[in-house]
Amino acid sequence: AEAVQETADLRRDLALAQEKPDLPVLEALEAVSEGFAIFDSEGRLEFYNDFYVENIWPQIADILAPGVQFDTIITEIARRLDWDNFGMAAETFLAMAQANHSKLPSISELNFPDGRWLRMSKRRTASGGVVAVYADITELKQAKIHLELVLGAIDHIAEAVSIYGPDDRLVYFNEAMKNVTPDIRSEERRV
Questions:
Q1: CB neighbourhood size of 149 (10 A)
Q2: Ordered per-residue pLDDT tens for the chain, 191 residues
Q3: Are 104 and 130 in contact (CB under 8 A)?
Q4: Could you say which DSSP state residue 119 is in?
Q5: Which run of H or of E encompasses 123?
Q6: 136 and 117 in contact (C-beta within 8 Å)?
Q7: Max CA-CA distance within the chain?
């Protein structure tokens, strides 16, 4: 009788939990500056935050809703973004997206035709679904490109140049610096 009562209590608690979602968790998922989505084991979109719609996939906001298949989402992305003029066939994007969604865990970065860079991190859930986090890393990629340009220019300066970080540690030096300071090691050259 005691086991029956415990089972009944567990069922009641489960039913209550399903009726009332965990509001702090939902609030936290809405507060993050990444797109967040959960797909069930059949590939249907179960949950997503506003950032996922408004900042990650605004081009397909009209089709995003619980129950939409992952394949539908990526097909629409392939159709609506100008992949051909970007130098990548839409079919290549589709194949990459499908592979990153099925071979888990996966972390990938992709430059989109609209100029954005996204980092997509996906993992399998215990129930066989997929949890996906999408971060817009456009500013990071642009900063890296600018840094590479600056370091490339420094490398071509005839004078010795060394750059130190805020902790007074050497973080970069150009080729001319090796001639002035022969004991400087190439492995110290980093950024």
A1: 10
A2: 565 566 666 666 555 555 555 667 778 888 788 999 999 999 999 999 999 999 999 999 999 999 999 999 999 999 998 877 778 888 998 999 999 999 999 999 988 888 889 999 999 999 999 999 999 999 999 999 998 898 888 888 889 888 888 998 888 888 888 888 877 765 555 55
A3: yes
A4: E
A5: strand 117-124
A6: yes
A7: 88
